[in-house]
Amino acid sequence: MQIESEIQRYVAENLLFSDRFPYEADTSFLQEGILDSMGVMELVTYVSTAFGIDIDAQDVTPENFDSINRLASYIRRQQTKGRSC
Fold this sequence. Notes:
The chain is an all-alpha fold and 85 residues long. It is 59% helix and 0% strand.
């Protein structure tokens, strides 16, 4: 659950300019207007730096980056993949 908390904190502080994330963890960033395309790119940069993973452009999809839970799952998959290489 720590990954989810870190993502929520980042999005709230840096993209929503708030002290809390007032949405459910499965809420779509794009459908709810939480992030626009620039926000997604900021999130990609944050995830790469904060979690130490390389993100391929083809991975920047709604399936991986459109909610707290989807993004946390993607990060865990990438971290596991990095350890097995």
